[in-house]
Every structure is written in C-alpha cells, then in structure tokens.
Specification:
This protein is an all-alpha fold. About 65% of the residues lie in helices and about 0% in strands.
Length: about 110
C-alpha cells in the first residue's frame, strides 16, 4: 500500500511540475508516467535523468531525488546510479562529498 501511495504522490508532483514544459524525446511524458506507475524502475531512472539534466523539463533537484527514491523502492541501488554519473556532474560531486562526510569518524 505504501508503494502505491508513493506512486500516486509522485505522479501528482510530476504533473504539477511540468505544466508548460515539453520533453523532447520519443517517449511522451504521460507514457513515462504510466510506465513508472506500473513500477518500471528504468522509467524512474529516465525521469530522474530528465530532472537532473533539465533535458526537456525544468532542472529540479526535488523531483530528481523523488525519482531516485522511487527507483530505490523498486530495487535499484541508487549508489550504483550515482557512481555511474560522469565525474563532472554536480550532483555526483554533492552526493560523494556527503557520503565521505557521513563516513568520517566523529
């Protein structure tokens, strides 16, 4: 039930955040949302990439994290995704810095 609730909230947030935006790809935004609502982890990662890069939608950290969290709920290891980002990516730098700080002894 928790996963279903998270999916509905995610779809509502996404729909509100992209009003007036145009994703320029073969996949329409509504088809991506439909796939994601069925638990398609790869689609959540594709949506996460759109929000991370601002490709066709407004660059949005909150929605990027939401998509990453939803992918995590469906079994994808977010650490693998972050490690796969280009070294020049600002978010990769942020997350790896936070991870190093978290592992420092207090």
């Amino acid at each position: 039930m928790k996963k279903i609730w998270c999916v509905y909230i995610t779809i509502a947030l996404l729909a509100a955040s992209v009003s007036g935006c145009n994703i320029k790809s073969q996949d329409s935004f509504s088809s991506l949302l439909d796939k994601a609502s069925q638990g398609d982890c790869a689609t959540y990662l594709k949506l996460e990439d759109y929000y991370r890069t601002g490709n066709g939608v407004k660059r949005d950290f909150f929605n990027m994290i939401t998509m990453a969290q939803m992918a995590d709920l469906y079994g994808y290891r977010i650490d693998d995704y972050i490690n796969g980002l280009p070294d020049s990516d600002d978010y990769k730098t942020l997350f790896t810095t936070m991870d190093r700080h978290h592992s420092c002894p207090v």
